[in-house]
Amino acid sequence: xxxxxxxxxxxxxxxxxxxxxxxxxxxxxxxxxxxxxxxxxxxxxxxxxxxxxxxxxxxxxxxxxxxxxxxxxxxxxxxxxxxxxxxxxxxxxxxxxxxxxxxxxxxxxxxxxxxxxxxxxxxxxxxxxxxxxxxxxxxxxxxxxxxxxxxxxxxxxxxxxxxxxxxxxxxxxxxxxxxxxxxxxxxxxxxxxxxxxxxxxxxxxxxxxxxxxxxxxxxxxxxxxxxxxxxxxxxxxxxxxxxxxxxxxxxxxxxxxxxxxxxxxxxxxxxxxxxxxxxxxxxxxxxxxxxxxxxxxxxxxxxxxxxxxxxxxxxxxxxxxxxxxxxxxxxxxxxxxxxxxxxxxxxxxxxxxxxxxxxxxxxxxxxxx
Length: 369
Hints:
By secondary structure, the protein is mainly alpha-helical. Helices cover 68% and strands 0% of the residues. It contains 17 helices and no strands. The chain is globular and about 60 Å long. The chain starts with 13 loop residues before the first helix and ends with a helix.
């Protein structure tokens, strides 16, 4: 079999890291020019959305810094793929890719899975095009999460989950509502990690956007911590849901020399999520926001609380904590774009968001984590 890359797992040539970092910085500078150096103008101006979506998909296809690249490249060429028995879609996809008349089935697999995630996320943003520009929102998703939106099955499952949530919020009628919930529930069949999102679906009914209701989150958080503490005795269930296997252990193993930098980058990576959400929380307390946006905010609130619960129980670097937090990539991009076009953020606040994003992503490229 032929491979697009010939280097071994985690043995990534430095020039490859620099290449991807340079590509990211090019898009980052473009994003800064479109946001901080210009006045936000919300109008359906001609966008290079299609071109950017293709770029984003191709970036995901050939992006080899993320550990999923190596794991899936190996899996696609093994004979026994029964380990995907609970996610039949990937078995059928692998078999389809293997049947193609050329020797690059892995790249096709990635194009279907990652490319599908990009397309579904973009289409979800298009459903909100009366409130934001879809292309700009996709740009934010890339700038904030260039190194983490390539988590194969997880990225596709996240995109399907939030497409279902958006469909539920933006359509009236019981049939459409049920269809939206059904789409969100189906995300579990693309990655079991989205069980967390399904458990949190009742948060759609909790008015977290009201300051007087914020104290409810404290009780929910305490309840989640207690529940996770008891569930943690059955780690096999959690390990299976989060793919906490040998690869995950390797990801969390760092040399003593780099421990200080990793701790700092971990904190910055978390701030990249929690800082914009903190600003949004204060905004939603005092502003009237469309119900379709409030629903996205509520579900994001619930998922971030679950992430905090995992941090308390298992530690800051726990795979359970950061993988749950990653589920909010798509809705946070949507909420941030909405806040930007409503001019809810000051330029200083948006600058801080961008600085956190570029530091977090740059460290990820340099360390090839």
